[in-house]
């Protein structure tokens, strides 16, 4: 389950309530995403709070963009988060889709490439391995609880990105707009083949989608409102055109059928993305997940 970090009017009470409810189960992971030029909480600060608010669920960034951060400081912050949560951290990373986030922090848009990300990942892995990357007296710490650092998932919806990340990633943090399990499995097959070519264990396969539970029109309107807000860098007419077929809107029984269709293709984890901060949506989704 993803935290409602892209919803308006959040405060510590709402975030803590969601985190604690997710941690109570039956969800395997608690996820949250990163944006800069938006009203969402800052990703790494929230990681510290989530580590304190939870005890069981894995904590998964979906996704953080290394090019928006100094890689040494990012490695230190993530290692600290891994320490605080007792080794429950999983780091989904991607290149990001918005130039405005790069510009907001003074990052070079020319680094918005797989190569730019891989270069930063290499530095982060050196930090997590305890290497000294300057002539400092001591290496940059603390050491992450998980040897070599937290697992890395590549945020991608394209074969080229998946293949290029197979050398250093541990799995995929994908997304599906149209809930087409067959198309998702084609990308999973790309990942399985790329990891096999790299002589690595099979990748951890995840995908995600927006959801709203309720009557057909009410739930679909909820998804539409969320997309209008979240996709504010895209002209509204394009968002309006895609909204009727994007994400899930419907009943618990219908959501369960969708989840089972992805389970059938070997999906290790589906990360649900709420389109409301209403805790009732979380509770209803928990009932569905418990039925799997």
Automatic annotation (TrEMBL):
This is Luciferase. InterPro entries: Luciferase-like_dom, Luciferase-like_sf, SsuD_RutA_monooxygenase. GO terms for molecular function: alkanesulfonate monooxygenase activity. Residues 15-241 form the Luciferase-like domain. Keywords: Flavoprotein, FMN, Monooxygenase, Oxidoreductase. It comes from the Bacteria. One of its GO terms (biological process) is alkanesulfonate catabolic process. It comes from Mycobacterium kyorinense. The lineage of its organism: Bacteria, Bacillati, Actinomycetota, Actinomycetes, Mycobacteriales. The keyword Oxidoreductase applies. It holds the Pfam family Bac_luciferase.
């Amino acid at each position: 389950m993803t935290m409602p970090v892209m919803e308006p009017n959040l405060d510590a009470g709402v975030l803590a309530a969601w985190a604690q409810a997710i941690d109570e189960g039956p969800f395997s992971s608690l996820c949250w995403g990163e944006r800069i030029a938006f009203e969402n909480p800052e990703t790494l600060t929230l990681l510290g709070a989530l580590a304190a608010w939870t005890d069981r669920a894995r904590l998964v960034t979906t996704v953080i963009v290394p090019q928006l951060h100094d890689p040494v400081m990012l490695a230190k912050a993530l290692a600290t988060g891994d320490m605080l949560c007792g080794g429950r951290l999983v780091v989904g990373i991607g290149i990001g889709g918005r130039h405005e986030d790069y510009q907001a922090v003074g990052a070079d848009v020319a680094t918005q490439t797989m190569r730019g990300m891989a270069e930063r990942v290499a530095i982060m892995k050196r930090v997590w391995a305890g290497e000294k990357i300057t002539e400092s007296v001591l290496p940059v710490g603390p050491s992450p609880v998980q040897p070599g650092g937290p697992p890395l998932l590549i945020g991608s919806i394209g074969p080229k990105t998946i293949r290029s990340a197979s050398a250093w990633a541990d799995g995929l943090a994908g997304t599906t707009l149209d809930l087409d399990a067959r198309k998702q499995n084609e990308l999973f097959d790309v990942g399985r083949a790329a990891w096999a070519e790299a002589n690595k264990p099979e990748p951890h396969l995840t995908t995600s989608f927006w959801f709203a539970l309720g009557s057909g029109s009410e739930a679909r309107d909820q998804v539409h409102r969320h997309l209008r807000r979240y996709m504010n860098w895209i002209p509204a007419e394009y968002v309006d055109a895609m909204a009727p077929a994007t994400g899930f809107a419907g009943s618990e029984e219908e959501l369960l059928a969708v989840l089972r269709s992805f389970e059938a293709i070997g999906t290790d984890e589906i990360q649900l993305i709420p389109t409301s901060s209403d805790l009732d949506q979380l509770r209803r989704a928990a009932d569905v997940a418990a039925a799997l």
